[in-house]
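Q: I'm building a small set of examples for a reading group on sequence design. Run inverse folding on the following structure and report the sequence directly after it, with nothing in between.
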């Protein structure tokens, strides 16, 4: 059972990698960006509340985001570990997540941060704009999302660095190689902090369950 975060600037590939490593570790990947986009598409109340912020590349207000994550973590599939992708991004969200976990008597084991140079991020996102047409992938909004990452979310990573649970992973190169690096990083942090789950001999071939 692993409870972990994947962090990284927009365009770092965290969504792709989150799905892959969650699958390997047998845990659910929860992407706040995906949940927001789904709600916008379905025009739910949450979607209507969030749309303007997302289109402008701003953070959805903490109270809305925190409530959504708290609800999601109460679902049955999140009771046996989870990988949060895109949350927390602000100091207020770190505090909220700490409170949610404390209530469950749980702790985060690992935070992985994908690093990619800004020039490559911009190039990747502009390319994605052509193929996927996300409303927030215009040059101006991309720059704003990157600025917010540097201004606020890097400090969030810093607060987890102080807890000794962060591994930084090079997010450039082949997708498979990056997945391998991430899994290795998860394993190293857990070994170093003594939070590796006990695996029975029978299951030892699998990553963990
Ligand atoms: P990216 O990391 O490329 O910006 P995401 O899919 O993770 O893409 O997020 C898309 C948008 O969803 C963000 O720009 C923001 O508007 C909203 N969002 C996602 N997660 C959060 C969060 N934790 N707090 C506030 N807003 C969020």
């Amino acid at each position: 059972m692993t409870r972990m975060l994947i962090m990284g600037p927009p365009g770092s590939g965290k969504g792709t990698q989150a799905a892959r490593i969650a699958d390997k570790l047998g845990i659910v990947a929860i992407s706040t960006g995906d949940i927001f986009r789904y709600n916008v598409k379905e025009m739910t109340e949450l979607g209507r509340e969030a749309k303007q912020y997302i289109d402008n590349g701003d953070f959805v207000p903490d109270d809305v985001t925190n409530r959504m994550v708290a609800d999601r973590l109460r679902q049955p599939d999140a009771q046996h570990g989870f990988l949060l992708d895109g949350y927390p991004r602000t100091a207020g969200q770190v505090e909220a997540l700490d409170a949610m976990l404390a209530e469950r008597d749980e702790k985060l084991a690992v935070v992985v941060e994908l690093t990619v140079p800004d020039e490559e991020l911009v190039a990747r996102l502009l390319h994605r704009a052509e193929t996927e047409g996300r409303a927030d992938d215009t040059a101006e909004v991309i720059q704003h999302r990157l600025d917010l990452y540097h201004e606020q979310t890097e400090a969030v990573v810093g607060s987890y660095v102080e807890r000794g649970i962060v591994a930084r992973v090079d997010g450039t190169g082949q997708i498979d190689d990056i997945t391998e690096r991430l899994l290795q990083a998860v394993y190293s942090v857990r070994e170093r902090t003594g939070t590796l789950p006990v695996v029975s001999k029978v299951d030892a071939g699998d990553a963990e369950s």
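The chain has one domain: 3-201.
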